[in-house]
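Bumping my old thread because nobody answered last time. Still need a sequence for this structure:
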């Protein structure tokens, strides 16, 4: 179930994700390999074929990865801080519906306790402390909390002992842009493309578009030489224009790393449109954009298409996640960041307790989250994308609870993109997805 033969160009692509192998083979070769897998008799494979393939052990020795115990000690060395639920934009598809609820901002004692926790663990592990600032709101709006957290972690571990990261919408004053550009070694910037798409999908609360403001931020990043990744949400507006977006980004910015994700039915999008984009249309347009990026020396990625695995889980939900909301709740998912979200009952597994001055973790809930791995999803057995998409994002299934039996609406999309990446691998056109 972990070796695949995909028809291609008069033969087959043989893909063994656990062994890290992909090759183009004719029908007779595939038939011999299939007989070997069924019988384990090396005599059914011609010696010349076996020799050219470097032997047959790669069909025998590639064991499935073994998950760590779900009740293991909780030892996070990185934290993501959701400093506020406020936002200066009203993006039409915002999963968090940022800016629509009572304004909340993280208290200093919360981010200090979180930094203390990961700093202790990082010292034991001998690794840098990871501190990231992410959404649920725009982190630069909680300016005193942002600068305070950066200052505090540096006072605890020093500049060299910390790895800082930030995801932002890029709408901020010039002095704040200067701080971000000179403080963070890399920046993830939400930008949906050309002026028409950005202004339509990511407007200010009173209606005007945000394109010019974001491009001003880009200018600051580029003047300081700060590396950044452009993260774009693909809607029906840009579905067939993904290659055009790649050209625009390359022609108008110095960025060469792009991350495209299809919009999904959640939050504000659910209220206003209530549908996702076509899976097959996204896959076809994404691959055209992928090729365009490769031709022009850039990299384009989509979260559920990773050939460098195997990966037991789609994201960090099954590892040692520590993402803290403005209220001090601990969540395993960036997209489940407020108590009003029905999925918070599954994804929240701890909180900051002021009386104790520390985070209290629900280990039973954490063990349940750690079980969200692909080997626990029988519907993924035999899927060519099993070890790359790894069951896909557990939030994207569209349910209100964790459900191992519910397929992702992106399954066909993930399989199609995975197969197209394999085609490019055997054709020598896959320089950024090593096997």
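Sorry it took so long. Here it is:
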């Amino acid at each position: 179930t972990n070796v695949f033969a995909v028809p291609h160009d008069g033969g087959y692509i043989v893909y063994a994700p656990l062994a890290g192998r992909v090759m183009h083979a004719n029908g007779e070769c595939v038939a011999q390999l299939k007989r070997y897998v069924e019988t384990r008799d090396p005599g059914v494979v011609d010696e010349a074929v076996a020799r050219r393939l470097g032997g047959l052990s790669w069909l025998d020795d590639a064991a499935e990865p073994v998950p760590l115990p779900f009740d293991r000690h909780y030892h996070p060395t990185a934290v993501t801080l959701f400093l506020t639920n406020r936002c200066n934009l009203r993006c039409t598809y915002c999963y968090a519906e940022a800016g629509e609820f009572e304004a909340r901002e993280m208290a200093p004692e919360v981010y200090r306790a979180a930094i203390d926790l990961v700093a202790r663990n990082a010292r034991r592990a001998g690794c840098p402390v990871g501190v990231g600032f992410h959404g649920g709101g725009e982190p630069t709006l909680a300016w005193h909390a942002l600068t305070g957290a950066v200052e505090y972690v540096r006072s605890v571990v020093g500049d060299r002992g910390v790895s800082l990261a930030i995801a932002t919408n890029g709408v901020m004053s010039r002095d704040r842009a200067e701080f971000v550009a000179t403080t963070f070694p890399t920046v993830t910037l939400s930008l949906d493309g050309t002026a028409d798409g950005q202004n339509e999908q990511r407007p200010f609360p009173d209606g005007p578009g945000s394109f010019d403001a974001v491009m001003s931020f880009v200018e600051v990043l580029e003047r300081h030489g700060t590396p950044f990744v452009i993260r774009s949400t693909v809607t029906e507006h840009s579905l067939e224009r993904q290659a055009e977006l790649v050209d625009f980004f390359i022609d108008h910015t110095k960025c060469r790393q792009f991350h495209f994700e299809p919009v999904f039915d959640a939050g504000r999008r659910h209220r206003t449109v209530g549908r996702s984009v076509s899976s097959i249309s996204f896959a076809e347009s994404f691959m055209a954009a992928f090729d365009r990026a490769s031709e022009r020396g850039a990299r384009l990625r989509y979260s559920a298409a990773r050939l460098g695995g195997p990966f037991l889980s789609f994201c960090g939900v099954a590892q040692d996640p520590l993402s803290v909301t403005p209220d001090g709740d601990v969540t395993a998912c960036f997209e489940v960041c407020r108590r009003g979200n029905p999925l918070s009952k599954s994804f929240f597994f701890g909180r900051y307790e002021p009386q104790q001055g520390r985070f209290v973790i629900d280990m039973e809930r954490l063990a349940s989250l750690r079980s969200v791995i692909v080997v626990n999803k029988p519907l993924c057995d035999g899927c060519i994308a099993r070890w790359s998409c790894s069951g896909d994002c557990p939030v994207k299934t569209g349910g209100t609870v964790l459900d191992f039996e519910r397929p992702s609406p992106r399954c066909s999309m993930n399989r199609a993109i995975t197969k197209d990446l394999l085609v490019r691998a055997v054709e020598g056109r896959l320089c950024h997805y090593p096997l």
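The two ends are 19 Å apart (CA to CA). Let me know if any region looks off to you.
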